[in-house]
Amino acid sequence: MQSTDDRANGIVNSDYTHVIYAGEAFLPDLLPQLQRHFRVETQKEIATLGEYVSKQTLLSLPDAILIEVDEGGECFRFVEKLKLNSLLREIVIIFLSASPSPDLSRVALMLNVGDLYISPIPANDLCNRIKFLIRLRSFQPRVSGAAAISLKTDFPVKKRIFDLCISCFFFLLLLPLFTLIALLIRIESKGPIIYRSKRVGAGYKIFDFFKFRSMRHQSSDDLVKLSELNQYTPSDGTPATFIKIKDDPRVTRVGAFLRKYSLDELPQLFNVIRGDMSLVGNRPLPLYEAKSLTSDEWALRFLAPAGLTGLWQVSRRGKGEMSERERKKLDNFYAKKYSLRLDLVILLATFPAMKQREKV
Fold first, then answer.
1. How far is it, in rounded angstroms, from Cα 4 to Cα 59?
2. pTM to 2 decimals?
3. Which of 2, 131, 239, 289 could link 285 by a cystine bridge, Cβ 3.0 to 4.6 Å?
């Protein structure tokens, strides 16, 4: 178990993070990866899990419990009882299920569990999610406005209403432009008009992120070869967290125009309408970037909504001299200070910032 001081400082030491796994169905596939990151104990049944937890002291309680959902609903009764105990309710609970169900999602939400995974379960994503939820539990009491930031990442209702009204208005207004851009992309090069990728947003949730395709189809295969052109490469030679390539040779002619005026970002209005993102927030990150941001210093950025625009876009974007650390600091600042008033200021500053000074 971690020390009390470590928990207070938001530190998650994987070597000491104690995870209990209850069930057998997914254990053979998940256990090897879990054991690489945590100290894992297993319980075959919910009944034995309840007995085990009841015998623990404050210092030996698990940090997280992974529970396979059973047909009889015994797992729900266990969690319901757990939440009634003030000493146990902060343990991170994650449900694992063989199949999706609206009722299961509703019950999981009602019980305020950390997450619900449906088979097939990505082991690496699960490990990162456990680390984040434990870290979030440590951060919550110290984050300004913590009442609006829960494990379910529920954000202010006013912000959601504002997002829906503005994004729906512009989505309908810009439909003719969407059609023209789609036609130009299709004429110039083969491949899908909309580029879809997995991104990590608020609460380390993964979702499908939409952009107009601005590169040659399957150009991501060339990324390793172009790493020396990365704008965010640190001067000391250490690996970069963020990737942004100046004069990227993979970009098409239409794509270069779209990027210059940020028109390639317009399909993210649909992400906002779906609830994946907000109009203003911290940019959702590709999986390879988010994976390196699970350190304690920067986990705070994932407490903020994922946004179509944000502080770093309007303050330093396209100027080239912004460091990786400066961008992270802006993300953390927004996570602690975001409000509807700040969102309006950022939105008004976004329009003049849409034209980029550099080809990135």
1. 9
2. 0.54
3. 289
| 209 contact partners, CB below 8 Å, separation of at least 6 | 196, 197, 198, 199, 268, 271, 276, 284
Residue with tokens 């504002």: 162
Angle between helices 157-173 and 175-188 in degrees, nearest 10: 60
Strand partners, 306: 282
> How far apart are alpha carbons 275 and 198 in whole angstroms?
15
Half-sphere exposure of 75 (CA within 13 A, CB side): 23
For 64, the 3-state DSSP assignment is strand
What's at 302, amino acid-wise? Answer: F
Tens-place pLDDT, residues 166-225: 999 999 999 999 999 999 999 988 889 999 988 888 877 788 999 999 887 655 545 555
Lowest-confidence region among 96-100, 186-190, 265-269, 325-329: 325-329
Q: Quick count: other Cβ atoms within 10 Å of Cβ 161?
A: 11
End-to-end CA distance of the chain: 45
Cβ neighbors of 255 (< 8 A, separation 6 or more) are: 185, 212, 213, 214, 215, 264
Which residue type occupies 45? E
